Amino acid sequence: MDYSVIAKPDISQLKAHPNLDDYAGARASFQWDSIRKELDGLPGGGLNLAYEAVDRHLKTARRTKTALIWEGKNGEEERYTFEQMAQQSNRFANVLTGLGIQKGDRVFIFAERFPELYFAVFGTLKRGAVIGPLFSAFGPDPVKDRLEDSGAKVLITTPDLRERVKDILPQLPELKHIVIMNKNGRFKDALQPGDLNFEDLMAKASDQFQIEATQETDYSIMHYTSGTTGKPKGAVHCHRAVLGHYATGKWALDLQDQDIYWCTADPGWVTGTSYGISAPWTNGATQLIYEGGFSANRWYSLIDKYKVTVWYTAPTAIRLLMKAGEAAVKRHDVSSLRHICSVGEPLNPEAVVWGTRVFDQAIHDNWWQTETGHILVANYPAMDVRPGSMGRPIPGVEVAIVNVETGETLPPGTDGDLAVKPPWPGMFQGYWRNEAMYNSKFKNGWYITGDRAHMDADGYFWFVGRTDDVINTAGHLVGPFEVESALIEHPAVAEAGVIGKPDPIAMEVVKAFVSLKDGYEPSEQLRQELMRFARKKLAAAVAPREIDFLPSLPKTRSGKIMRRLLKARELGLPEGDTSTLEED
Ligand code: PRX
Questions:
Q1: Which of 75, 107, 308, 362 could form an S-S bond across to 124 if both were Cys, CB 3.0 to 4.6 Å?
Q2: What confidence tens digit (pLDDT) does each residue in 537-569 have?
Q3: Quick one: which atom of ligand 1 is closest to the CA of 342?
Q4: Which of 562, 568, 570, 564 has its CA nearest to residue 545?
Q5: Mind listing the pLDDT tens digit for each residue in 81-93?
């Protein structure tokens, strides 16, 4: 199929004039200072993400504008203005002060998407503490790893999720307070001895708060991200990242005052904070938050009901929508959509072209990572879209294909390491308590992303693959080591090796190979038991979808499991260099 360029639309025919209407001009003359001037800064000095996203709007007509529209799983609806968001987050900041939380302390939140989560995030930022969002599908192991490593003092959660991870909570000496949210009294007998009740604390707290005078480089948010080896690492961001969220919300998402914006990502992952919290609200848009998960029918009806104009979603979801068929779209009126973006995995060219057919517009792919904090490469509304390309770098940031060993940039058309010239506003400030790992990501003056790509002659970037064993399943990065560690805790498992197996919908699924201890025999029953065991410890999104038994796993002479070889064998590909192989 010929995926020729989708020519940029006639700007005069668009429903809204794009914020970035002259890409080349903007890139040529851009200075980050100009973005800093579009933000307010704290009265009295400093910069705080929560102030830029919420409180600064109270000085304008946006004070009484709806910031958040929430639709619950059961169809409940709630709306909050920017002023109400400010008051509620002030209450939570006061709650934290009452609990003795200081600037820089870590406060983690493990909850479904409902309004109180957002009040707690902003309240934590206003207090000057560091917010750590956790994906609500996680099982006990990922939650423990993150709370332990970060030394979190507060965990905000819900009765059902607390129950899921109850066994690990007593193992966290630094965790001082468990605050339980009981949305609209959904749960009976919600509190365990020692727990605090979110609703009671909020009711007693004042809605006035003097925001901590955070500076640009003070820590704001941390997200754990998986690597090839070891446990996930806490990528820490600072308040200055808000410049990047705001700017890319303007340029790549094209957010404008009249927009109803919907980001389908969960705030437990970075897309759900940078673009599900900071970018829309710093740009003063109204944001739809839907508590439930994927459903083609429900999603289209939400777009129709709330007249969503700008939509940020992910390739796996788009592929599922494509699978649901065009008739499913036609049952709804989705004509309110004026700009659609996607991130997290490669977006198939077919999907971009499909968008032009069913939504009458291209789907705009963009690229970034937990570590980059915000979008760095994007397709913009006023630019030609090349289906299959991630787009071009944002103004103010240099992105290149480099040779890691020399730092040289490679010519167009050559595959190499995708790299970024530091610094940029959202650049991560460190991996929590892991300086060596942080330093290892910077080489010869470049931040090395771990992705392989090439650039074409016109400066569009094309994703090729990852340079490591990290698995991307439905846009979630999974470290093979985490899954292997969980599996070998089962009494039957001697060794485990985990790979990403290509999948038409989720891009990759997690596949494990295990060898068993003496006395255990492979069986379908044991396979099912291991799947359940891993799902309970990790999360359905992270646990293996397939498990194969092998008599032993291929290892190097130094005893490292050769995942590369497991993958090559699984896919029937050449085995490559096996000179270091030690096989029984
Ligand atoms: O491998 C790239 C892939 O997702 C990784 C970043 O994942 P994470 O740190 O979880 O950040 C999520 C926020 C985007 C990248 O290193 N990735 C991201 N966007 C794209 C992509 N791969 C291909 N095309 C993209 N547009």
A1: 107
A2: 999 889 999 999 999 999 888 888 999 999 999
A3: 26
A4: 570
A5: 999 999 999 999 9
| Torsion angle, alpha carbons of 311, 314, 316, 321, to 10 | 10
Q: Provide the residue type at 173 as one letter.
A: P
Q: Which two tokens stand for residue 581?
A: 């192989």
Separation between Cα atoms, residue 540 and residue 206, nearest integer Å: 40
* Domain extents in the chain: 11-25+32-452, 471-571
Ligand 1 atom at shortest distance from the alpha carbon of 463: 23
Specify the amino acid at residue 19: N
Q: What is the 3-state secondary structure (H, E, C) of 362-382?
A: CEEEEECCCCCCCCCEECCCC
Is the shortest distance between the CB of 164 and ligand 1 below 6 Å?
no
Token digits of residue 381: 């509304």
DSSP, res 6: B
Compute the distance from residue 403 Cα to the ligand 1 centre, in Å. Answer: 20
User: Residue 225: CB within 6 Å of ligand 1?
Assistant: yes
For residues 526 and 549, what is the distance between their CA atoms, to the nearest angstrom? 10
SS3 content of the chain, % helix, strand, coil (to 5): 30, 25, 45
Q: What is the rounded distance in angstroms from the CA atom of residue 146 to the CA atom of residue 168?
A: 11
- Give CA separation, 516 vs 368, 491, 567, in Å: 39, 9, 20
Closest-lying ligand 1 atom to the alpha carbon of residue 225: 9
Instruction: Report CA(227)–ligand 1 centroid distance (Å).
Output: 13
pLDDT tens per residue across span 482-498: 999 999 999 999 999 99
Beta strands per DSSP E along 264-320: 286-290, 310-313
Whole-number pLDDT of residue 577: 72
DSSP at 274: I
CA distance 427 to 423: 6
- For residue 513, how far is its CA from the centre of ligand 1 (angstroms)? 26
Q: Is 71 in the pocket of ligand 1 (CB under 6 A)?
A: no
How far, in Å, is the centroid of ligand 1 from the Cα of 96?
34
Tell which atom from ligand 1 comes closest to the C-alpha of 271: 13
> Hey, what are 389's tokens?
């390309």
Nearest-CA residue for atom 23 of ligand 1: 346
Tokens (6 digits) for 30 = 């851009």
What is each CA distance from 330 to 318, 319, 407, 447, in whole angstroms?
Answer: 16, 17, 50, 45
Q: Whose CA is nearest to atom 6 of ligand 1?
A: 369
Pick the CATH number of 471-571 from 3.30.460.80, 3.20.20.140, 3.30.300.30, 3.40.190.10: 3.30.300.30
- CATH number for the domain whose boundaries are 11-25+32-452: 3.40.50.12780
Mean pLDDT value across residues 184-188: 91
Question: Does the fold of domain 471-571 match that of domain 11-25+32-452?
Answer: no
Dist CA 565 CA 571 (whole Å) = 10
Query: Going by CA atoms, what residue is nearest to atom 26 of ligand 1?
Result: 367
Determine the residue of 385, 431, 473, 477 to mutate for testing ligand 1's pocket, defined as the one with the most ligand atoms within 8 A of the Cβ atom.
477
CB of 463 within 6 A of ligand 1: the answer is yes
Ligand 1 near 374 CB (within 6 A) = no
CA distance 492 to 514: 10
440 DSSP 8-state letter: H
Distance CA 231, CA 438 (A): 14
344 lines ligand 1 (CB under 6 A): yes
d(CA 230, CA 434): 11
